[in-house]
Automatic annotation (TrEMBL):
Record key words, sorted: Membrane, Transmembrane, Transmembrane helix, Transport
Gene: AQY2
Transmembrane segments: 29-50, 70-90, 102-135, 155-174, 181-200
Taxonomic lineage of the native organism: Eukaryota, Fungi, Dikarya, Basidiomycota, Agaricomycotina
Bias type Basic and acidic residues, positions: 309-318
Protein name listed in UniProt: Aquaporin-2
Amino acid sequence: MPLFTRSPKSENSSAGARPKRSFISSQDLIAALFEYVGTTVFLTLAFGGVQAAQAEPSNPTSPTSVERVLYISLSMGFSLLVSAWLFFRVTGGLFNPNVSLALLLTCVIGPVRFVLYCIAQLLGGITAAALVLALTSGPLASNTSLQGINAAQGVFIEAFVTAALVLSVLMLAAEKHTATPFAPVGIGLTLFVGHLWAVFYTGAAINTARAFGPAVVTGFPDSHHWVYWVGPFTVPSLEQGFTHSSSSTLQYWRLNPGQDTVDSRESPPDPVRSVKSMMVISREPQSSVGHDQRRMSGDPSDEGTVVADRGRRNDSLV
């Protein structure tokens, strides 16, 4: 994506006048607007699910903590799956500043669009948190906080689960192949699995905008909010180095080629037919070798067979 875009030359300008240049193109602004809408849709659905899970009354029939974690994980993962599938042909469906940084480092998006996307994603997180707070009763339940771990552990947990999400985006969406149109499914399931682990310990931000929005709306109640900036943002540079080295140097697609093909002729052959053909091939050399060995050893039975064969051929000629 070019950093500068030329504006159309006016009719009154002279032939020798230099064309005006703009840092931001109209396409970048429109893409950032749709990225804001997509992030708002994604996080509103996700925060709504979290709010519903936490709003269950405390009684013997209420869900257990494990069921609540599963409910929150499903809400986040499936919200991303649906939202990304809706918007991935428009903006790429990033909804995450950490993913945007990874795509910047892999030259998928330019620096201008990266900055606009990050602003749109952070504003989308704030808007989604404000909408859920206004539409539901009780305090906002989407704030992230550490539970039973220290800040260093929180940074590494957030870094690891964010690495899994960024890797799914790079391998399923950025790297083009036959299954790329179904990338939102794999990306959403990756977020779901990441929440199964991290939601209890860190709240499972896995997205700086997801942690930033509720924190802004509620006045930053947690002193460890910096964890959700340091942890996720340490990942994209490492992921970029891995994908670049595996693509250009290792050439991973040569290790197991044809895995994304839809050609039925690339399917394995019929196993029964393969076994039969192998048996036929294995029998033919043994019979010819045994025949040659008998002739060389002077086996009288073999010579009698040869004589009888010659006699039959002579009788047929007569």
